[in-house]
Amino acid sequence: MIKAISVGLQHRNQTREQVLESLEELEGLIDAIGGKSVGYLVKRKDFPDASTLVGGSYLNLIKELVEGTGSNAVVFDEFLTPSQVRNIEAILGVDVLDRANVVFEIFMRRAKTQQAKLQIELAKLTYELPRLYGLGARLSRQSGKMGTRGPGEQLVEIKRRAIQKRIHKIREEIEQIKKHHKEQRKNRFKTNNLKVALVGYTNAGKSSLMKALTKKDVFISNMLFATLDTKVGTGFVDGEKIFITDTVGFIDRLPPELVESFKTTLEEVVLADLLLFVVDISDKRWLHKINTVEKILQDIGAHEKPILYVFNKIDKIVNNKEQIALFEKSFFFEKPYILVSSERDWNIDALLERMKSYYKSHINLTYTYA
């Protein structure tokens, strides 16, 4: 079991509160892989140290905390280079992880389908490949040879070629899966049925909303990245079938390699007629998380889709359904939205009514799919 010290870096454009909120999320990520964060440190540093990120003297402080708590790992809320990991581990004497390592580990453990497993492996290998360079030269210098291609560099070159070969193979396999999914979508797109995709930050309640709308038995848990695999269910508006897709949740500073590798899965978002943007209204950082997801939607080309913001978990703010209207009088949000509780089934009927208006505007359109 990982017993870790969490370390955050406060940059010049950040407040301490922002760093602490990010560290709180990091602790949730560590918990998601069966670990535990037993303490944290925040280092204010405008210019991160190239070799150790936080500087040698601060690492001595971290080492004292590691020894005092009996921790066996230190997790940095940053993306570290391989040389930084090696240098920090040499001083601390324990395993050193960064934010990307923890996220990749969660994804690898939670993936169920072959497609998700391939996408995560592709992302991890793509992340690792550029980080091989420099390691070979370092190993060769340790061997004492100068001016020639050392054994360390030769080993890294062999590993680099193996990774490139595996990446090529995975991409071919994903392309085959993509073609299969395209055929499945063709069958769904033969009619003018409304296609809705659920998007949002991880743990915002997308799966519970999916269950409320479709009555589909889906896995629901109060944890980060509880589900990774895309699920398609059906709901009904005025007796007409609508297709509802639940997609992988997003997170702040998600490794870009993961976003890139999951673009095949996220095609369901790009091809949807309507996005239900699920937001945890009880989360004090909900506005920041909206901004995070909106940036990712822009990256995948889905930001111009019609969006209805679904503020979920309103039952954590008010005591009963009747109080929602009172709360709404003081709630200001300029974009189309609705307040619901998928767990208590509050306002789900009203949400369906809102979807009905989209369906009526959609029904006269003719869809083609290439």
Give short descriptive properties of this protein:
Rossmann fold; 4-stranded parallel beta sheet; disordered C terminus; 13 helices; 10 strands; alpha/beta
What's the short story on this structure?
The chain has helices at residues 16-32, 56-69, 82-92, 99-110, 114-128, 135-142, 151-188, 206-214, 256-261, 267-270, 286-299, 324-328, 348-362; strands at 3-10, 36-44, 73-76, 95-98, 195-200, 231-237, 240-246, 274-280, 307-312, 337-339. It has 370 residues and is α/β, with parallel strands linked by helices. The radius of gyration is 23 Å and the shape is globular.
Explain this structure.
Helix 5 runs antiparallel to helix 7 (151-188). The radius of gyration is 23 Å and the shape is globular. The protein starts with a strand and ends in an 8-residue tail after the last helix. The strands form two sheets. A six-stranded mixed sheet has the order 6-7-5-8-9-10, with helices on both faces. Strands 2-1-3-4 form a four-stranded parallel sheet, sandwiched between helices. The longest helix is centred in the middle third of the chain and has 38 residues, at 151-188. By secondary structure, the protein is an alpha/beta fold. The protein has 13 helices and ten strands. 45% of the residues lie in helices and 16% in strands. Mean pLDDT is 83; it is low at 134-148 and 365-370. The protein has three domains: 3-106, Rossmann fold (3-Layer(aba) Sandwich), CATH 3.40.50; 111-172; 189-362, Rossmann fold (3-Layer(aba) Sandwich).
